[in-house]
Amino acid sequence: MAADALSIIPGAVLRNLADKLYEKRKNAALEIEGIVKQLSTAGEHDKIAAVIGLLTNDFTYSPQANHRKGGLIGLAAVTVGLTSEAAQHLELIVPPVLNSFLDQDSRVRYYACEALYNIAKVVRGDFIIYFNKIFDALCKLSADSDANVQSAAHLLDRLVKDIVTESDQFSIEEFIPLLRERMNVLNPYVRQFLVGWITVLDSVPDIDMLGFLPDFLDGLFNMLSDSSHEIRQQADAALSEFLQEIKNSPNVDYGRMAEILVRRAGSPDEFTRLTSITWINEFVKLGGEQLVPYYADILGAILPCISDEEEKIRVVARETNEELRAIKADQAEGFDIGAILVIAKRELNSEHEATRIEALHWFSTLLVRGRAEFSAYLDGIFEPLLNALSDPSDAVVLLVLEVHARIAEEYHHFQHLMSYLIHTFHNNHVLLEKRGALIVRRLCVLLGAEKVYREFSTILQTEGDLDFASTMVQALNLILLTSTELAELRSLLKKSLVDTCGKDLFLSLYASWCHSPMATISLCLLAQAYNHASSVIQSLGEEDINVKFLVQLDKLIRLLETPVFAYLRLQLLEPGKHTWLLKTLYGLLMLLPQIFIEKEAI
């Protein structure tokens, strides 16, 4: 076949085709073009194939760079000479040109781009069957080390895009795997090349790029953190266009994309996080039933972003969280309450207060929405919720108490909560001192003061650590006497001598209030049981009166001056009616000198 070709093309032409001067190679190519035209007109395609074989084997695969350059320009000339009949010879013409893209000589690579450009201009749509290989070659050339090669590849790329957009033979299904494989490449030139193709193909009405978006969405998000501002802009523009298409499309695969967005929402790059959260926000609004199985993952992405350093991210995350919490999905639709609770429990340990607060709102929401389903997972979350009572944030503690109050509607959970609080206060006196009043007062509002105090009293009756029992009773007593939330409880105790309910409450508290003499006396004074108060004071003469005792006595006397005991002070105006009250107060006065004696000793 080579011998046939040598007889077809004059030796001088072949020598010029391998000349180092471009003009000689160009003229030789023009002569080859003319020869091929004649052969094509005569229908002698075997001879044309022989010419192509000669140019391929003796030139494009030659060890001499000028021969390879000549072979490439010669193959382009053959294609031009064939014009409309070039398609039947493409399988011989295109492979050696594509092979030349890998040549070590940058000038050969440049001429390969030029040759393929000229070939593509002639064959247009017939070129599509080689698209995947050409795309692969262009992808590599876009990052070529030689600027001239890059420029030539760019021109070829534009032509190939034009051909693809006007072709009805382009297979998007075959192209997507190629695109997906390259989306995580870090080279900036390749990234620009890929985004360019995505944008162009998405603009073609007959090509459904949106349907394949999950295949390359992660790669686009990856480009948002590129060091090049231009690449970030291009990726953002492409993503914005796709998001707009999603809003207008009835058929979107939200599930696969949701998984990608959740991962990207945790990106260290601020712009990537913002874009991810913005997409998630739209998905929550648009996704409907498709997104129900992904709610837990989405929540896991949203909650940390609520405490993001960037305000824009915080705003979108908070809005998305509210949208998600407002959706009333059920287990039949794939709603996994257990998975949601796992996320909420995890975020209880967040270092950010705002995130912990929103996690607690989710506990409340799920508890209200489906108590039976919530209760099935209670064993795994009750302990973390109890531990959260030690949170440094008052706002968090108040919300934790609200959740506990909802759980404690069942009595055995209520008992567990009260026992845990006593246990926690026993082990953490600082918590009792700083947060005890807040916790007890809030529980009284949420669960009822009488119920809470009765349970505390019942537990403290059997407390083995008498010092702690005394401290705890003193704390509860102070809250009882000073908190506005317990006004009704105080009113009930004042009626202890005339009201059965008041009497029953007094007796319930008295059993544990006895751990503290001053608490016992103040309880008796509150209940107007002055006779018994006097008896208690009389019994104190047998006790070891120490500094701690005297400090408590001092606190009691100060409390007698508060508005809570105004009724008691008014009763002193009628000493004849309240003999035991006078005796009680005189008894306290008799103890007062001990304070001064003790101070002198100190």
Automatic annotation (TrEMBL):
Q: What are the Vacuolar protein 14 C-terminal Fig4-binding domain coordinates in residue numbering?
A: 431-594
PROSITE patterns assigned: HEAT_REPEAT
Identify the domain of life.
Eukaryota
InterPro entries referenced in this protein's UniProt entry, alphabetically: ARM-like, ARM-type_fold, HEAT_type_2, Vac14, VAC14_Fig4p-bd
Q: Mind telling me which GO cellular component terms the entry cites? A: endosome membrane; PAS complex
Q: Name one Pfam family in it.
A: Vac14_Fig4_bd
Keyword flag Membrane: yes
Query: Chief location of this protein?
Result: membrane
Segments annotated as HEAT repeats = 93-128
Q: Which UniProt keywords apply?
A: Membrane, Repeat
Give its localization: Endomembrane system
Question: What is the name listed in the Swiss-Prot or TrEMBL entry for this protein?
Answer: Vacuolar protein 14 C-terminal Fig4-binding domain-containing protein
Provide the organism lineage as a comma list.
Eukaryota, Viridiplantae, Streptophyta, Embryophyta, Tracheophyta
